[in-house]
């Protein structure tokens, strides 16, 4: 096996051995190697289709145009026009905070993080403006254990099932979005206790970690600092386990990018089953 592949395999073995053991990285337990073909991937991304893609108000329209065909040109090619945050995407800290890292300042490890899923579908169904509280997070930890440091904390609000319909933005008569998200105290707690750390973040199946009615984006401004990211408009969250998985965000790295449209995968080590 070439050296680079050996290093990658060893690194993933250490990563997933730690995840499975429930210990922190500092404990450095001895673990058996993990074969890369034993990892299970689940797709957490919507397909980018102009017919179904809900676009955040004010963002450019999403367009796909066929510019070459096999009969005419010998190959098939589309021209894509979209914002960097159209559809499933990840955001870089500089998306909301001047002077913070942009897409090309991020490290690969910033986009590959342990993840936990918090199911708030019932509360979001009862109140589309629901803001997840510190008590919600503490109650989750009583059942599932402490959120690992530098994790991506993913909210499953049920909005992924509304994708492609007017119910997804859920815009009121006043033009305001009504989507659930994190409360400001909850995100401050995640940051202050190290659970988001330097390069964790938040994830959601809605447009943003902010409650839709908060047009100041207070939560986003807190999350998007240092090397923290936000994964947004996630799909298929039913398949993401509550604990034990990692998330991997891909996509083009644009110069001075605010983030990137992305294919986001849930990466499940051996012994961790899809949700």
Automatic annotation (TrEMBL):
Pfam families: Cyclase. One of its GO terms (molecular function) is arylformamidase activity. This is Cyclase. Coiled coil: none annotated. PROSITE patterns: TAT. InterPro entries: KFase/CYL, KFase_sf, TAT_signal. It comes from the Bacteria. Keywords: Signal. The keyword Disulfide bond does not apply. Residues 1-27 form the signal peptide. GO terms for biological process: L-tryptophan catabolic process to kynurenine. The keyword Methyltransferase does not apply.
């Amino acid at each position: 096996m070439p050296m680079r592949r050996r290093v990658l395999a060893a690194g993933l073995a250490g990563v997933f051995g730690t995840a499975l053991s429930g210990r922190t990285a500092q404990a450095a337990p001895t673990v058996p190697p993990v074969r890369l073909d034993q990892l299970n991937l689940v797709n957490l991304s919507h397909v980018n289709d102009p017919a179904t893609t809900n676009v955040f108000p004010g963002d450019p329209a999403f367009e796909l145009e066929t510019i070459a065909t096999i009969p005419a040109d010998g190959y098939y090619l589309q021209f894509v026009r979209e914002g960097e945050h159209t559809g499933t995407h990840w955001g870089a800290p500089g998306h909301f905070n001047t002077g913070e890292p942009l897409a090309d300042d991020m490290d690969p490890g910033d986009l590959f993080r342990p993840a936990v899923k918090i199911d708030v579908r019932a509360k979001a169904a009862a109140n589309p403006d629901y803001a997840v509280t510190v008590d919600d997070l503490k109650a989750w930890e009583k059942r599932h254990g402490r959120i690992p440091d530098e994790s991506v904390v993913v909210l499953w609000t049920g909005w992924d099932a509304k994708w492609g319909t007017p119910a997804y933005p859920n815009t009121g008569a006043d033009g305001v979005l009504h989507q659930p998200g994190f409360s400001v105290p909850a995100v401050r707690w995640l940051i202050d206790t190290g659970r988001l750390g330097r390069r964790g973040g938040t994830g959601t199946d809605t447009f943003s970690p902010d409650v839709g009615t908060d047009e100041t984006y207070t939560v986003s401004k807190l999350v998007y600092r240092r090397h923290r990211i936000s994964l947004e408009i996630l799909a298929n969250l039913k398949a993401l386990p509550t604990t034990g998985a990692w998330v991997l965000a891909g996509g083009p790295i644009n110069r001075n990018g605010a983030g990137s449209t992305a294919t986001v995968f849930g990466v499940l080590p051996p012994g961790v089953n899809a949700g």
